[in-house]
Write a structure and sequence with these properties.
Blueprint lengths: L2 E2 L5 H10 L6 H11 L13 H10 E2 L7 E4 L5 E6 L7 E8 L4 E4 L3 E3 L8 H5 L1 E4 L2 H9 L9 E4 L9 H12 L11 E5 L3 H10 L3 E5 L5 H7 L8 H8 L10 E7 L7 H10 L6 E6 L13 H13 L3 E5 L16 H4 L1
Parallel strand pairs: 1-2, 6-9, 9-10, 10-11, 11-12, 12-13, 13-14
Antiparallel strand pairs: 3-4, 4-5, 5-6, 7-8
Helix pairs in contact: 1-2, 5-6, 10-11
């Protein structure tokens, strides 16, 4: 089976060019065709000699693919389904969210997830595979709205920092001059708080970071998120306080609101204490009901009081609008379990 060029970094393309005895400058030419012009075949790389294209095509193909299908929500949100480039019957989903002033794509980094968060459909699905950098980038490049995108969030299926190598490669390609040349300010990566990989991300990129918090109390967070046992939220916060978020890089915390579990003033007070000294914001998210779950979404009144309490404490707190719930495209609802069985 031929290897794929799409998703290779410039350093990796340099290694390929060297091994095939092609001129050194060919690596940048290939990167331009892949990420600027987005060709579908090696033959389209017309500034590379025919002989060298044959050498390249003998071992490689581009490796992009179109979505298998899509669904459109009543609110305009669109959910795309992709099959893995490497394993048949392994699928992922990504979500396109159009708004008046922006167009965001929520991409997946894994098929399934190991984190087993109680409130998440992907976590219930279990883990199937890590996505390659090319499979992550393919979600951005292969949809019809690709040229409209203003932002990308790594908040789809999977835990990005459980696939840190490929996530970092994809971020390099998105933000590098040889790649998509996007500003890091257009990209946010979400994590449950895998500290070693989070530190690597912080040192190697300038992209925004979002941390899934969901309760400031250790015992309650552990009930919702098993990762709390290995990476307690207080240790995550301690690590984050060593970085400077006062300039262009943004730190946010995702906080799903569960009725009677994490939506009281007591929780707001502890949350304010926990985040004291951090330049950050909190995104409140309504829980989206999933089958066979005893969790329930908080009442609007409770959410409003919780948000006001935190804003009064000078912690910028917003309520994220729910999008695509009718097609199971909202936060925590992505799952391809039926397709993998």
């Amino acid at each position: 089976m031929k290897d794929f060029l799409f998703g290779k970094t410039l350093n990796e393309l340099d290694e390929i060019v060297l091994r095939l005895s092609l001129p050194r400058f060919t690596a940048k030419q290939i990167a331009g065709w892949l990420y600027k012009k987005r060709v579908k075949t090696v033959d389209e790389m017309t500034n590379i000699s025919l002989e060298n294209r044959k050498k390249l095509a003998g071992e490689f193909c581009i490796g992009t693919s179109l979505p298998e299908k899509n669904q459109i929500s009543a609110d305009g949100t669109k959910k795309y389904l992709f099959e893995s480039r490497y394993m048949q019957k392994i699928f992922i989903e990504s979500v396109y969210i159009p708004e008046a002033d922006r167009a965001t794509l929520c991409v997946s980094s894994q098929s399934g997830c190991k984190m087993a968060c109680k409130f998440c459909m992907t976590g219930r699905q279990g883990f199937q595979s890590n996505l390659s950098s090319g499979e992550i980038l393919n979600q951005i490049c292969s949809i019809s709205e690709s040229e409209k995108l203003t932002n990308v969030v790594y908040m789809g299926m999977g835990e990005p920092f459980d696939n840190i190598e490929n996530v970092l490669k994809s971020l390099e390609i998105i933000t590098s001059d040889y790649g998509f040349a996007w500003s890091p300010k257009r990209i946010t990566v979400s994590t449950v708080g895998i500290i070693p990989a989070m530190n690597e991300f912080m040192s190697k990129t300038k992209c925004h970071l979002a941390v899934s918090l969901h309760s400031p109390f250790d015992d309650e967070r552990l009930q919702l998120m098993p990762v709390q046992k290995k990476y307690p939220i207080k240790e995550i916060i301690k690590a984050l306080k060593s970085y400077d978020f006062s300039h262009q890089r943004r730190l946010s915390f995702e906080y799903i609101m569960f009725d009677g579990i994490n939506d009281t003033v007591r929780h707001g007070r502890e949350l304010a204490n926990l985040l004291h000294g951090l330049d950050c914001r909190i995104n409140l998210i309504r829980f989206h009901q999933i089958p066979d779950s005893d969790l329930r979404p908080s009442q609007d009144e409770a959410i409003g009081k919780f948000q006001k309490y935190l804003n009064d404490k000078n912690i910028l707190t917003t309520l994220r609008s729910s999008r695509g719930t009718d097609i199971l495209a909202a936060c925590g609802m992505l799952s391809t379990k039926e397709m993998t069985e």
